[in-house]
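SEQUENCE-TO-STRUCTURE ENTRY
===========================
Question of interest: how does this chain fold, as expressed in backbone structure tokens?
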Amino acid sequence: MHSHPRVRSAGLEAIGLWTVAGTCCTDYLTDGHVTAWFVDSWPKGKNLAGRLVKANLWEAVEEGWQFLSWAENQRTRTEWNATRPPR
């Protein structure tokens, strides 16, 4: 990640948002959807999200942003739920 061209083009501050958004998506099983509320809660959030879109790390979607290739790199909600023990 340290030398990936997309990471470099997004910049360190935007990658900070990318990182905390990724942990939020993982914790809440959003399948890589980042809500507008979450982005807006960070200083310069929309600007940073735009930099992530420009770097091809996110795409703008209805009501927020989406990590590109989320299901290729992270477990989806369906996959996670399939591994949970029965209640």
